[in-house]
Design a protein that fits this description.
The complex is a heterodimer of chains A (489) and B (95). By secondary structure, chain A is α+β, with helices and mostly antiparallel strands. Chain A is 40% helix and 20% strand. Chain A folds into 3 domains: 294 residues, no CATH class; 114 residues, no CATH class; 59 residues, Arc Repressor Mutant, subunit A (Orthogonal Bundle). Classes of the chains: A alpha+beta (489), B mainly alpha (95).
Chain lengths: 489, 95
């Protein structure tokens, strides 16, 4: 980061709320239906129809805004945003302009790998609006008609606008990951980017260090980013491009109209799009067909108490109670509530948070992936896995053999004790272990000489020989004995 | 006061193509309409609460329960062009 500029990024996220029906009519919001089969006179904008607000959509929005620490407006209303586009049948979008239902919140982000310090990203506002339809263009000839599907028209969206508080592409990605995790824990959206349930637009510019102080370059809005990785890449690309444009033109914020650019994930570049209309061009005015919504303190308190534990609190609790590192708590919490529940039960059973964390992150998560099951449906319950881990703790089995037992437990559904018995695994008596160690030391004078000559890794050969003679030996304990006995010679 | 340029801009935003004569006539009419509404500005409103809606009603909600949508045939019936699946519109490219 020796560049003489700071990157400034703000993000606008549109998230589709998990309602069964649209925001202002009762058409289904189910994804993937045949085109134009989920519309009615209200959502296709027939004259004389009246919208009615979906109670669940407002409730989900409220829940999210409270979890984002927003101030909730006691009085809120909806406005018409006018523009012409074929996928907007009414000629206006019902959105919120000057009295959004929530504003002024924040979300904490951190990086488990420590690339940036934990920080708080401000949320300017979150408001509820309806989605537009979908246009499909003939990319090949560019001549044929465009096709319009209005199934998505009127689907409830929560628009979450951040402050321009992010200072690197990595911070932008971390914000999106944390936001998605929060939305998933709240259950307010499925956040499926492929199906368009979560869409991201970014605003980016630079603050360049000059002899006369910091100078802001023109803000550019970037669209068409279809994954968080794409957002990170687009921001990396844009920062360099802004710097080049600045060096070439010296253009400052306010000297040119705001530009919109689209990310091309294949070419890995952004391309200029139409100039954005000034917001006054949208000619917002209050929608006379929708009445305002008033929220009481009692309603807010009820939502607040229904939130449950959120991801940030959960990570802190796991680290404090089970002594695991932020990296580990991040992996567990990011995998979802179900895995955290599994982990907590296992850690409590074996009384060792780190051991439980290792096994859950590696063996359990891998098996869940292979079987494509949720933790709650996983056949091996924490109690059964706990028996295996307890055997490790007691020295009855070493970790690598325990992994084999785990696989057999998964395959056969048998208990740890039964599998260990079937495989002839039992704890080797200490005196037996010492006898074996003495026998091998006597038979391998060259290796003993190597160890004495300052090559302790030579003991590995003896462990290998010992395992052949008795697969049940604990390699860790055996190594200790080798070092101890050779040292006495 | 509203100028001819204002009306030109509004007609562009509304995707209305007006002839020079129509623009002339519309400008005169819009000056009258807006001027009429502007009389309201003469009233003293310092002590009046801003009003967001004409009705003293709030919190009108519907339950999130699916009801049947229109048959596609009916939905597409009024479209100038369609292919029985999609509405068809002149190519919209380059945004």
């Amino acid at each position: 980061m020796s560049e003489p500029y700071t990157i400034i990024i703000g993000l606008e996220v549109h998230v589709q709320l998990a309602t069964r029906t649209k925001l202002f009519c009762r058409c289904s919001t189910k994804f993937g239906a045949p085109p134009n089969t989920q519309t009615c006179p209200i959502c296709i904008g027939m004259p004389g129809t009246l919208p009615v607000m979906n109670r669940e959509a407002f409730a989900l929005g409220l829940k999210t805004a409270i979890a984002l620490n927003c101030q909730i407006a006691r009085f809120t209303k909806w406005d018409r945003k006018q523009y012409y586009y074929p996928d907007l049948p009414k000629g206006y979008q019902i959105s919120q302009y000057d009295l959004p239902f929530s504003q002024d919140g924040h979300l904490e982000i951190s990086d488990p790998k420590g690339r940036f310090k934990p920080k708080r990203i401000g949320i300017i506002r979150a408001h509820l609006e309806e989605d537009a339809g979908k246009s499909m263009h003939d990319e090949v000839s560019g001549q044929a008609d465009s096709k319009i599907d209005l199934n998505r028209t009127g689907t409830p969206l929560l628009e979450i606008v951040s402050q321009p508080d992010m200072r690197s592409p990595a911070e932008a990605k971390a914000y999106l990951q944390e936001l998605k995790l929060l939305l998933t824990y709240l259950g307010v959206s499925d956040c499926n980017m492929q199906e368009g349930s979560l869409r991201v637009d970014a605003n980016i510019n630079l603050h360049v260090d000059t002899p006369e102080g910091k100078v802001a370059t023109p803000i550019v809005e970037v669209k068409n980013m279809n994954s968080f990785r794409a957002v990170e890449r687009a921001m990396e690309y844009e920062a360099v491009r802004h710097w080049e444009v600045w060096q070439e033109t010296g253009q400052r914020l306010g000297q040119v109209p705001k530009q919109t650019r689209g990310w091309d994930d294949t070419a890995m570049i952004t391309r200029g799009q139409r100039h954005k209309e000034e917001s006054s061009d949208y000619r917002y005015f209050p929608d006379p067909d929708l009445v305002p919504v008033v929220t009481t303190d009692e309603e807010l308190a009820a939502v607040k108490s229904s939130l449950g534990e959120l991801p940030a609190q959960m990570r802190t609790r796991l680290e404090a109670k089970y002594g695991i590192k932020p990296y580990d708590s991040d992996v567990l919490v990011s995998a979802g509530q179900g895995l955290v529940d599994y982990y907590v039960e296992l850690a409590d059973l074996v009384g060792d948070g780190k051991l439980a964390s290792n096994w859950v992150q590696q063996d359990v998560m891998r098996t869940l992936n292979e079987q494509k099951v949720e933790p709650a449906a996983f056949a091996m319950r924490p109690k059964q896995l706990g028996e295996l881990l307890t055997a490790i703790q007691k020295g009855e089995i070493d970790t690598s053999r325990a992994r084999e037992v785990f696989l057999e437990m998964v395959a056969s559904g048998k208990s740890a004790a039964d599998v260990m018995k079937a495989q002839g695994i039992e704890k080797v008596d200490e005196s037996e272990l010492i006898a074996l160690c003495q026998e091998l030391i006597a038979a391998n004078p060259k290796i003993v000489a190597d160890i004495q000559g300052g090559k302790p890794q030579a003991a590995g050969n003896l462990i290998g020989q010992a395992k052949k003679k008795n697969p049940n030996i604990n390699p860790g304990r055996f190594r200790e004995l080798v070092v101890e006995l050779v040292g006495k010679m | 006061m509203l100028s001819r340029a204002d009306v030109e801009k509004v007609s562009l935003l509304a995707r209305l193509e007006l002839t020079p004569e129509e623009l002339e006539r519309m400008t005169a009419q819009m000056v009258q309409i807006v001027g009429y509404v502007e009389q309201l500005a003469e009233l003293k409103t310092d002590d009046v609460q801003p009003m967001a809606h004409a009705l003293e009603v709030h919190n009108v909600f519907a339950a999130d329960e699916v009801r049947p949508s229109l048959p596609r045939e009916a939905a597409l019936a009024n479209a100038p062009h369609h292919d029985k699946e999609f509405y068809l519109v002149p190519a919209v490219l380059g945004e």
